[in-house]
Amino acid sequence: MEGVGGDSAAAAAAGPVNQWVHDVSRLFQYYLDKSTPYAMYRWIGTVVLFVIYAVRVYYVQGFYIVSYGLGIYLLNLLIGFLSPLVDPELEPSDGPLLPTKGSDEFKPFIRRLPEFKFWYSFTKAFCIAFVMTFFSMFDVPVFWPILLCYWIVLFVLTMRRQIAHMIKYKYIPFNIGKQKYDGKRMSSSSSNSRAD
User: Fold this and answer.
1) Rounded to an integer, what distance in angstroms lies between the CA atom of residue 193 and that of residue 196?
2) How many domains does the chain have?
3) Range of the domain at 156
4) Which of 118, 117, 109, 104 shows the shortest CA–CA distance to 85?
5) Is 122 inside any structural domain?
6) Distance between CA atoms of 18 and 21, rounded to whole angstroms?
7) Of 82, 133, 154, 187, which sits 20 to 30 A from 180 (CA to CA)?
8) Are 117 and 146 in contact (CB under 8 A)?
9) CA pair distance 149, 145, nearest whole angstrom
């Protein structure tokens, strides 16, 4: 009988904790959803986190292996951000593909990793790496210039391959703003046609 009563007491104690965790996660998701349209402000906040992390690593003079792992992870995220959802090289698909010839129908570029998820993972990685700098077990002594050189070589080779893929399949993963209608240009050409 006591075992049953003890289990119900533990369940009753866990109930408010579970409810609190659920409420906090819902509140966090609410504010995360509200931040979606404010891309510039989100990225400014991430840059501030990057500066705080860089100052922390510089001040402590350590945690280079954490920074290297962070750099590899961010490079992986960048590749996902720059890659199309359906890679024509790997997956033949019946769905929309990137146009390979000028006569092909226009298909919009759809990222494998959308901007919001890219930002969220990017920011979360900096937060986790920052927290790791407070635990000495992650401060593995390494000669950091070798790690930096290796990361730069890896970045250059990966970006060269990604740019070659962009050129081969003729896509640009960035849109420089929305196309806008210029009424003045259209009205001047239509007035010239009326005068003829």
Assistant:
1) 5
2) 1
3) 20-175
4) 109
5) yes
6) 5
7) 82
8) no
9) 6
| Residue-wise pLDDT tens digits, 90-103 | 766 555 555 555 55
- Amino acid in the structure at residue 82: L
In this structure, are residues 84 and 111 in contact, taking their beta carbons and an 8 Å threshold?
yes
Task: Confirm whether 12 is domain-assigned.
Answer: no
Asked if pLDDT for residue 174 goes beyond 60, the answer is yes
Token match 């989100």: residue? 42
Structural tokens at position 105: 């129908």
For 7, the token pair is 């289990």
Write out pLDDT tens, residues 104-154: 555 667 888 899 999 999 999 999 999 999 999 999 999 999 999 999 999
Q: pTM of the predicted model, to two decimals?
A: 0.72
Sign of CA dihedral 158, 164, 166, 169: negative
Residue 194 within any structural domain of the chain = no
